[in-house]
User: Fold these one by one.
Assistant:
Number 1:
Amino acid sequence: MSYNIPKTQKAAIVESHDAPIHIKDDHPVRQPEELAPGECLIKLDCTGVCHTDLHARKGDWPLPSKLPLIGGHEGVGKIVAIGAHTVSSPVNIGDRVGIKWLADSCLQCEQCRKGLEQSCAKAKLSGYTVDGTFSQYVVSYVSHVTPIPPNLSSEEAASFLCAGVTVYRALKYSKTNPGDWVVIPGAGGGLGHLAVQYATNAFGLRVVAVDTGEEKKKLCLELGAEKWIDFRESKDLVKDIKDAAGGDGPHAALVSAASSSAYEQAVDYLRPGGSLLVVGLPGKAQIGAPIFWTVVKSINIIGSYVGNRQDAREALEIAALGKAKCYLALKPLSALSEVYEGMEQGTVVGRVVLSMT
Ligand SMILES: [Zn+2]
Ligand SMILES: [Zn+2]
């Protein structure tokens, strides 16, 4: 099978961190003969937009990105070419696959051998250290692309490749049992609304959703949250969260907030033995947990960074079973700048997916 591959394409380019995003129509497409062994060329159907893309655009992380940069790491599309001399590829030309944050890793180091390939020192990051998915064609790596279950649409699958796998993995390693309580601050947002569904439908947890506004309240309760707290209306958030979770506080808190206070509060409201699942990636904020109470309450502070290849497959499989659905708005690539503005203002409900066709 071979595909007709154009020489140029539409792409959204970050030329420098303070220049506006440049949408180009004539960005070159890497041609099949230019692919190295292990690389593949993917024609994208769509791509999700993640908060990380906004950090890459602004350059406000301690980790430098490449420049000029094509951002994006929630892409879904079809493999249209595989580099010559690629050996034992787990995917074939014509397969529909996803591109996630972790584009590639060495597969040989201790972290890779232990399934912690996200933390591989040689990791390549989509839309950060290698060009990502805000373009019609993207080069990725056969070992790390994620096969998409046939009954999941590309639009629906996109956000599970980062937001979905991130919350799925954090909950998977949360040391909780079915019937336990989990609190999800930001439950109406991109990560949060997927976390509500994985928590209830995949892990049997009871959810306290924390966010603000009628629209987010309605969404969280529809998706299975048992309790709702509007943080703007709460006079004492720590007490309200404890009360909502049976008085002793939740067994786990999945926190993706950018502010350190959300993490510190969690140590206060978690019940003894509880887990603070740290999944946000603000550039500079610190966790200032009180050591005394962290020890006396035996609090687990667990950093969880996206997911490995297996986590991604599991997260997508659960979505394909209909147990997690993404609340998304489909927009054209040209809307990227306004999507970033919405993210900065906190007005995006659910997730934005850009159509690339
Ligand atoms: Zn992401
Ligand atoms: Zn490695």
Number 2:
Amino acid sequence: MHGTVDYILTDLRRRSLPDAVEAVLERVRYFGLCMIPEYYSHQFCEQAVGIIRAHEANRDVDIWRDAQGSDTRIMGIEAFQSELDIRKDVLVGRVIASLYGQPPGSGFITSGHLLFRPGNLGSGGGWHRDSVHSDQFKALVYLTDVNSDNGPFQYYLNTSSENSLAELEEHYDIPVTENRISCDPTSVLPVDRLVEVCGPAGSLIISNTRGIHRGKPIQSNERFSLTSYHWKGGIPAHIDKLVNKSCLA
Ligand SMILES: O=C(O)CCC(=O)C(=O)O
Ligand SMILES: [Fe+2]
């Protein structure tokens, strides 16, 4: 495992569950990232997109939007539709539990719907680390085909460990304390560490979002996704207040 494309796991179906879990863990620990093309069925993706659209049109649902109206999120969508709870998938559940060293504590699922709008910053609002102080592991499922133009997840490989944070400060002047990256990493960091995660609907991405990443600004079309968020302790209060909690009447 040493080429950048090795973060993609293509032979999952030939592996037993324990072996598949190990293969994903190995990649997330080494690269900070693992992608499994078409892990979820197209039928699951189509149904999920329909459910997300319906909830976006429901005035009783709490919806978050970015300033450009390019990124629409429903936090806690699994409270309305439990089949969207990707944490219940046995592979996702075991991988996340192993990465955190304990069963997933609290968390939720967020739906993501990206649309092209002039000046959009991409999902996540530009290059950042979700957390500089501790590992943060997320599972992301593409519900529509994702190519270079409709907002792929972009990630700098091997940027999530304590050592690599120190290396980035020493060699590239990216402070270890910096959550939002103030420089343009594409003009500072080696281009061969950058991956643009494109893939068909159903592709599953598990990553350590302590590493440097963003959703690429969307240039055309749209992108639907589901993302799982996890915390060892409770959900931080400033996030928890945005999360949908109960079933609609
Ligand atoms: O959805 C994506 O591609 C990345 C989003 C992200 O990085 C975030 O919301 O923190
Ligand atoms: Fe992020």
